[in-house]
Design brief:
The chain has a domain of 296 residues: Alkaline Phosphatase, subunit A, CATH 3.40.720. The chain has 14 helices and 15 strands. The strands form three sheets. It has an eight-stranded mixed beta sheet with strand order 5-4-6-1-7-9-2-10, with helices on both faces. A four-stranded antiparallel beta sheet has the order 12-13-14-15, covered by helices on one side. The longest helix is centred in the middle third of the chain and has 31 residues. It is globular, with a radius of gyration of 21 Å.
């Protein structure tokens, strides 16, 4: 494989000029928490109805292959607000603050003349307060069933109060994160009189006995609440997994109803005509695939998230981009591009303007990071157009390689298949170049 150019590694973005305030769009970032990529009816999922999300997809573009930079809350959010990877932001586990001096979304747009407001979950480090360079509209609580409705109310009220424009609003909802508590409340086995109403169990439900040792450790050791959740699910039968999926989808529908209220306020005030909207989630949910629940894995259910773009400046309607490899680090440079605000340097993401116009993003791969506990159990994922490569920094069986074209369920690990030796070597090389270019301190235990 030829060495990668810096342009291939980092597709930087940001307009070379600052537009007049009267020409700049308002910006709205809607975030859910723990929503897997296809938990929307616009993604052809027949087991739930999400009319609010569907309306954004119908009015804009849905990116089918968006990945989180880290499938856990705080690290992912640190990347959203900086367009830098978690190893750069210093947020490698939950409840840490972004490294001092690193430019953040609120600061960038506040300094460019935007009114910046934030409602809901922050988690950098405090869960519902201390938003950097944002006016706090409302905080929240640990359960979406308690906080999402007040959040939507507060955001809608602010929009109806004729806010100063341009503005940047972040509405960060909690659900379907409530599934974490649901899992802890559903230990063991039970009767299921409504089984016929439940979704089927995933076809890729079997756990790989040769999974990387560090993933097996997470499954069995109960090192944190995420690990304990996977351990609880290990005792479930197929029926319990089906019940879990049914109730998870109800949580997605619940947050969609609150998003609908926010979007209604935007439309009723006419602000939608000059507001650029992105909807996404910080990470996904295990969905029972590989007998995994919650987050903290590189399997697609946990690491791949919804990504909808709509509103001012988006001319395509009802389009689905199946080619672009998108990351949450692309949000900040995309906002900067559409607002005519220079992005800081460096950023690791890219503007999605071209992709929104129908030209797929010129990107060879995206990367995600993950730690189980501390730096002694750490991994990286490289997703290319066809393959997904995973490697941990130690333990038995540290590598996984999946052919996403022939094996979308990620069942067959090809890392030790000699027929794929060149593919494996190529992905190792991509990761080596990325580590060097992004000054990552991760050290794979394997080479060519």
């Amino acid at each position: 494989m030829q060495p990668l150019s810096r342009r291939a590694l980092f597709a930087g973005a940001g307009a070379p000029f600052v537009r007049a305030a009267s020409e700049r769009p308002n910006l709205l970032l809607i975030m859910t928490d723990q929503q897997t990529h296809d938990a929307m009816s616009c993604a052809a999922n027949p087991w739930l109805k999400t009319p609010a999300m569907d309306s954004l997809a119908a009015d804009g573009v849905r990116f089918a292959h968006c990945y989180t930079p880290y499938p856990v809350c705080s690290p992912a959010r640190s990347s959203v607000f900086t367009s830098r990877m978690p190893h750069e932001t210093g947020v490698r586990v939950n409840g840490k603050a972004i490294r001092s001096g690193m430019p953040t979304m609120g600061e960038i747009f506040r300094d460019a003349g935007y009114e910046t407001v934030y409602g809901g979950k922050w988690h950098l480090p405090r869960s519902f307060d201390g938003m950097t360079a944002f006016t706090r509209l409302i905080g929240g609580s640990s359960q979406g069933k308690d906080m999402d409705e007040p959040l939507a109310t507060a955001c809608a009220k602010w929009l109806r109060a004729k806010p100063r424009q341009p503005f940047l609003m972040v509405a960060s909802f909690m659900n379907p994160h409530d599934v974490c508590q649901w899992i802890r409340d559903h230990k063991g086995r039970r009767e299921h009189p409504n089984l016929a109403q439940y979704p089927p169990a995933p076809l890729n439900m079997a756990a790989d006995p040769d999974e990387p040792e560090f993933m097996r450790h997470h499954r069995t050791q109960g090192i944190d609440l995420m690990s304990q959740g996977v351990g609880i699910a290990a005792e479930w039968r197929v029926e319990e997994f089906r019940h879990y999926l049914h109730d998870y989808y109800r949580m997605v529908e619940a947050v969609d109803r609150q998003i609908a209220r926010l979007l209604a306020a935007l439309r009723e005030t006419g602000l939608d005509r000059n507001t650029f909207v992105i909807l996404t989630s910080d990470h996904g949910e295990g969905m029972g695939a590989h007998r995994w629940v919650q987050k903290a894995s590189f399997y697609d259910e946990s690491v791949r998230v919804p990504f909808l773009v709509s509103g001012a400046g988006v001319r395509r309607r009802g389009a689905v981009d199946h080619q672009s490899l998108v990351s949450l680090i692309d949000i900040l440079p995309t906002f900067c591009d559409f607002a005519g605000v220079p992005a800081p340097s460096p950023v690791r993401g890219a503007s999605l303007r071209g992709a929104l116009e129908g030209k797929p993003l010129d990107r060879q791969f995206v990367v995600s990071e993950l730690r189980y506990g501390d730096e002694t159990r750490e991994g990286r994922m490289v997703r290319t157009a066809r393959f997904k490569y995973i490697v941990f920094n130690g333990g038995a069986n540290p590598e996984q390689l999946f052919d996403r074209e022939t094996d979308p369920g990620e069942i067959l690990n090809l890392a030790r298949n000699r027929d794929y030796a060149k593919v494996l070597a190529g992905h190792r090389e991509i990761l080596r170049h990325w580590i060097k270019a992004s000054e990552d301190d991760f050290r794979p235990p394997v080479g060519d």
